[in-house]
Amino acid sequence: MIRVLHVVTYMGRGGLETMLMNYYRHIDRSKVQFDFLVHREFEADYDEEIKSLGGRIYHVSRLVPWSRRYKAELRRFFRTHPEYKIVHVHQDCLSSVALQCAKECGIPVRIAHSHNSNQDKNIKYLFKRYYMRKIPETATELFACGKAAGDWMFGGKTYRLLPNAIAAEKYIYEEEKAKKIKKELDLEKNIVIGHIGRFNPQKNHKFLIDIFEKCFEKNQKVRLMLIGDGEGRKEIENKVKERGLQDNVIFMGVRRDVPELLQAMDVFVFPSLYEGLPVTMIEEQAAGVPAVISDQVSEECIITKDLVKVEGLEETPEQWAGEILKQVKISKRDRSEEIKKAKYDVETTAKWLEEYYLKKAEVN
């Protein structure tokens, strides 16, 4: 058996973490085992499951790319854990820091994985771009969730696509189940608009509230279900109260039952400022939920074209609201076969990843 070290921020219920867990659950763990190097001291959502599957979790300091102490800590870790011949890094633009330390310590297989197609244009943007340009020279392998993410991060270098695959059978739409879940949530008389994502600028929650306000003006039966958490949640809660919508917006927090909650949604809205190839878009299509997404979300994620409507971020909340209420009229049905044909079912892709790791370990 070989052990592969995944370098992440922490294993919460975000998109890339959920993707990793989907693969982890479906590989043959008697041949390939996943371990995780995380940059937070607290216990995260997936930690317990990782340990139950035989994985190890190691903690290091928060990532500070210019810190000599941080880099020394990474080098010390790599040198005292010679069992790792494969390091798979998921730290976005800053992946080159861990990759460089792994290279200096003689780790032969160093994978950089792009999960996004842009970055927030804040004070950190320029130095993130600086470290991003170093990724191809520090990695031996380049992976991306989609073409937009790979082209953006790797600057014309050759990379492999690894789909954000899901266990499609968990999301199959069932009318009776949907009715049951809506009843449990006291939403059986409502039109449920759903969104899944961390409360950060990328997900554009402020605009989402503007959109929902217009939806509510048009139809008082609509409710907005927000799944996720993050530093920006309080700001959005305050905006909801300012608009007098607190009785109509449901903050669900981080949830383990996303496949079930998708059953209760009548339409999914995703007005992100940028995305690579989001897992949530694959999940919602597998559940047969119609969607309205921004034109900054990679069109690679559109598998069921009749389900997904693309809107420009320059369009008004009024325009978005009109399209959302049109999409509600689309009947939900089982879409799992379409997901499988598009190669987003993890049963198939996990086997490929398992064999890839084994071949790399054998050569090195």
TrEMBL record:
GO MF: mannosylfructose-phosphate synthase activity
Pfam families: Glyco_transf_4, Glycos_transf_1
Keyword terms, alphabetized: Glycosyltransferase, Transferase
Enzyme class: transferase
Glycosyl transferase family domain mapped to chain residues: 179-331
CDD domains for the chain: GT4_CapH-like
UniProt key word NAD: no
The keyword Glycosyltransferase is annotated on this UniProt entry: yes
Domain Glycosyltransferase subfamily 4-like N-terminal residues, every copy: 14-153
EC nos: 2.4.1.246
PANTHER family to which the protein is assigned, alphabetical: SULFOQUINOVOSYL TRANSFERASE SQD2 (PTHR45947)
Protein name (record): Mannosylfructose-phosphate synthase
Organism, scientific name: Dorea longicatena
